[in-house]
Amino acid sequence: MADQDKVMTVNIVTPDGVVYNHHSELIIASAIDGDVGIMSNHEPIIAPLKIAEVRVRRTDRPDHEDAIAVNGGFLEFSNDLVSIVANSAERARDIDLRRAKYQKETAEKTIQTAREKNNVDDLDRAQVSLKKALNRINVSEHK
Question: Please, which contacts does 34-39 make with residues 24 or more away whose CB atoms are closer than 8 Å?
Fold first, then answer.
């Protein structure tokens, strides 16, 4: 285990429950305002997250980073505890790549149809779906 002064806990929670819970030396997440890297003893922070990968360097495997596909949400850090609350999140090992690719294709078709029909609402929803699918595909490569 790493030096206790460098350890923090990372929890990622969705409405379905805890997706991730480990001790970590470093976490990197994509906030709305840019990427944020957090190590223990960081100043407290609350940040809204983008649809993007969260990378966690665990204390029990410092040569390896866990990758988690997080679909927005919020990150809070205080007292060496990182809490991420998101509508959905998946660890790389849990992503069904075939399903993610299908969702990508479906979103791309919907985007094309929405542009042809000039349907802004469908276009916005499909673009979010595409971002989620691409995020899942990208994170699945880190298994």
Answer: 36/75, 38/8, 38/77, 38/82, 39/6, 39/8
Reported as a single tens digit per residue, the pLDDT across 71-126 is 999 999 999 999 999 999 999 999 999 999 999 999 999 999 999 999 999 999 99
- SS3 at position 97: helix
Distance CA 57, CA 120 (A): 40
- What are the tokens at 25? 């030396």
Each domain of the chain, given as residue ranges in start order, spans 4-92, 95-140
Contact between 140 and 95 (Cβ < 8 Å)? yes
Structure-token match 């929890």, residue found: 11
Domain 4-92 falls in which CATH fold? ATP Synthase; domain 1 (2.60.15)
Q: How many CB atoms lie within 10 A of CB 89?
A: 24
Whole-angstrom Cα distance, residue 50 to residue 46? 13
